[in-house]
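Hello Y.,

Per our agreement to keep a running log of every chain we model this quarter, I'm adding this entry. I've kept the format consistent with earlier entries: sequence first, then predicted structure.
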Amino acid sequence: MFIRLRQFFGRVLNLVLNRDLNPDLNHDLKSRFGDIAPTAAKYEGLKRFYIRSRDSCNGDSKLGQELKAWKSTEDNFRYELIKGLLPRDLVGQKTKSGHTRLTTDTFFSEYKEHNDTEKILSETDHSYIIGNAASYDSRQYPDKPDSAGQGFGHCLVIPRQRIYNIVDPAATADDCFIIREMHRHFLDFWSKQVNRRKMLVCAKQSILDQYTKMWEGPGRLGTEVAIKKKVLSCYRAVKKKYLKLRPEDFIFGFHPHPTHSVGHLHMHVFPHAEKFREYSTKSHDCKTIPLQAILEAELGK
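Predicted structure for the entry above:
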């Protein structure tokens, strides 16, 4: 009975985040699930949040000037409103490819030219898929649990083109071409089992990388090994279930300016079921705008 309940809840959550809304949905969900039910009001609230953020940014002439300069890589421009550029201490350093980091660079801009190609899980003419560098397990971030990923196998889809954020007009130009392409890219990627296993490798590697940072960092707690064992145990417990996920089992979302962390458009992709998010951060859920909500706002569908 409990398994059937969880399966139904997953289908309902997908309905709320990825399909047209039933006006009687709130009452039906509340009668079935009580306070744990996802609500149409929350979905509509996120849509309104996107529209307010978009309109505020589009009406800000100073931000518009900064975006124009950023897209032209004007390195001497004074950027005051744009968020998520490289930390100042990295500007001027050289990447492995020999590129000297600029003020206008971000961790995602010109990704292939500035990073090891092995970090790219898939690419099209328009976008890349990369794994999230952060571990999905907040227990590995005792001081900053919000630094963890939003779910097991959390990955990112990023456009090749310099597009700042989901509120950048370029993100929704041409009937939302680029964000729809990013979505299709992931669906095509996920359709192949070999790619699903790539995601598992990324998820495990992020755990090991964060363990190394904990172990070598200045604030060692003495519990790093025990934490790693717990995290890896949870990883093993869900990895086979992760491989069986369907496209509708994922959240596709964006963090609008100024709530984002990296100043280059990126779509977050992670499973919505609780078993894949038990130890992940949920503090970003309130700003994660579902792709479908954006399409409805822009295209009316």
